[in-house]
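Exercise 7. Predict the structure of Origin recognition complex subunit 1 from Aphanomyces astaci.
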Amino acid sequence: MLFAKSFNAKRARDCLDAFFKLDNSSRPVLILVLDEMDFMLAGWDLPERLAPKLRSRFGINRIAFRSYTHDQIQRILHQRLASLNVFERGAIEIYAKALAHQSGDVRKALMVCKAATERALRRVTDTHVPSLVLSADIEAVQASMSQSPLVTRLRQCSTFECIFLVALLREIKLQTEGVVRRMANLTKTAGLPRVPSFADVRAICFELERSDIVRERKGKWALTFSHDEIQEAFLTHPVGRLLWT
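Solution. The predicted structure, encoded as tokens:
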């Protein structure tokens, strides 16, 4: 670590800018590892969009990470959930195999397992009969997530609606001006040819508010969905998945 400290995105960007502008011939060679999330959170452009003179000074090596396989998902889930010992024998294996054929996303797997455990706990509380977390619990959670009207609407978001919601989630102040600026960065990250205008954003806000996905209160935007719900929806959205993962 350069500074052995944690900073917010703006402070980190300023520190790195100052560091790389130092005229010091004895400065060691540095290897900077970033993923697209680092670029987006910091508001930086991807390497391909740098000026040619700057790009030529970087040794850029892009690494594409594949989705987890069935065996990898199974091992990770067992490692995370082994201490609980509450899952029906074979339930995790069956779910891991199904997920590997879908998204291979371990975050989604853990989210589903958590919801399935809560479902089983409610059943035990209601019936006073001991029970493990069954495969049926996992299947029911998957089905409910897929059939939620809100998740369905989120999956149907247009490209710019999707970008607006991702920008809104990452804009701390939740004010329209800041969201518009962040949308511009995300639009470039997604490789889209046109950045939405302010009028476009207002139209997007109107449509999302009409669908009760967002609400405006005193000049700020409030979300009506949880982090888990938008993650579930955008993992299968062509633009949402690009910006989310």
